[in-house]
Amino acid sequence: MEELINYILQFGNLNRQQTDFILSKAKTLELHKEEYFSEAGKVPRHVGFLTEGVVRFCYYNNKGEEITHHFIDENNFVSDQQKFEAQMVASEYIQAVTHCKLLVFSKKDWDQIGNTIVGWGAIENLILKNCLLKTIERRSPLVSEDATTRYLSFIEQFPGLVNRIPLSHIASYLGITQQSLSRIRRNIR
């Protein structure tokens, strides 16, 4: 729980009473590998802070192919925030790639935090902005680079993930086939 508070304090000042209040609203959730934190076709029920493990955001394209478009690892928030806030049906999946432990907040508890802590909205906006910027930073280079460079960029951005997640998910994230990824990995060794 200390990781959550340290993360939040990067974006604003809170006193002990406020951090204790936040922690009082957090519940622990464990997900086994391949379980869903949020599913397409359902309203997201939680905002989570990942304390252990890796999740991926994925969807199915019009050909029925599974596309991974984002990974999140430890000490980061996990949420389909727009759909969660509006309590609308999600259009993508958030799936555990490894065994995961999260601190989660229900919509009711998340709203109570916002209604109780003065300045929470500003902190929440900075957290969301940070998450969005990280996503853009990681995705933008993938558009214009060749497959080998994309893989090397992936290794640089996610150094601890390469050996923790299936190659099929990495290949999907990079927009290449698993066979191409295997070839690239052989060539760079």
Q: Describe it for me?
A:
The chain contains 8 helices and 8 strands. The protein is an alpha+beta fold and 189 residues long. The protein folds into 2 domains: 2-139, Jelly Rolls, CATH 2.60.120; 145-189. It has a 4-stranded antiparallel beta sheet. Strands 2-7-4-5 form a 4-stranded antiparallel beta sheet. Helix 7 crosses helix 8. The longest helix has 25 residues, at 120-144. The mean pLDDT is 91.
Concise account of the structure shown:
Residues 30-113 form the Cyclic nucleotide-binding domain. Helix content is 47%, strand content 22%.
Mind describing the biggest β-sheet? 4 strands, antiparallel
Please, what is the oligomeric state? Answer: single chain
CATH superfamily annotation of the largest domain = Jelly Rolls
Please name the CATH architecture of the largest domain: Sandwich
Total helical elements: 8
Cα shape: globular
CATH first level of the largest domain: Mainly Beta
End-to-end separation: 39 Å
Fraction of residues in β-strands:
15-25%
Secondary structure blueprint with pairings:
Layout: H1 2-9, H2 16-25, E1 27-31, E2 36-38, E3 46-52, E4 55-60, E5 66-72, E6 76-78, H3 81-86, E7 93-96, E8 100-106, H4 107-116, H5 120-144, H6 147-157, H7 167-174, H8 178-188
Antiparallel strand pairs: 1-8, 2-7, 3-6, 3-8, 4-5, 4-7
Helix pairs in contact: 7-8
Pfam families: cNMP_binding
Keywords: Kinase, Transferase
GO molecular function, one term: kinase activity
